[in-house]
Amino acid sequence: MSGNEKPRPRVLDEAEASRLLGARGFGVLASVRASGHPHLTTVLYHWDGDRRLLRVSSTADRGKPRQLSRDPHAALHVSTPDHMAFAVVEGTAEVSEPTREPGDAVGRELLSLLPEPPEDEAAEAEFLREQVAERRVVIRIRADRLYGTALDM
After folding, report:
1. Mapping DSSP to helix (H, G, I), strand (E, B) and coil, where does residue 130 land?
2. Model confidence pLDDT, tens digit, residues 5-37
3. What is the DSSP letter of 135?
4. Are 54 and 47 in contact (CB under 8 A)?
5. Is the CA virtual torsion 37, 84, 47, 59 positive or negative?
6. Rounded CA gap, 107 and 128, in Å?
7. Nearest-angstrom CA–CA distance, 117 and 71
8. pLDDT digits (tens, 9 = 90+) for 141-151
9. How many CB atoms within 10 Å of residue 127?
């Protein structure tokens, strides 16, 4: 690049966008409010690139699960720490039922979203009880589209 040329954005292919999603853990989830306005919130997420599945833990009474149950259109945006690249996953969301019994299928799925498993069986049992008490749900977003851009400096 000569001194007068400006860097140009480079479109990420799906594999690059998927790698960026997998390398991060926090992103901004967009859903649609009843008014039609976007609702944005920072979330901790889990990306499974092989299944093209994004999962987020939430509580049943928060806005995200209610909004996504009404209108399942969703997107998640992540960027590199220097903000020189970003990736977006767009898709259709599904909200699980709240976990109702410690160790039920939803509770086990929530357990699988942890970055590291609990230290022992007692810690796992406590985690599963907390998820029931908090009325935790899993928001699952199946990727319809992955895209992104990088500005290589």
Report:
1. helix
2. 788 899 999 999 999 999 988 999 999 999 999
3. T
4. yes
5. negative
6. 6
7. 33
8. 999 999 999 99
9. 16
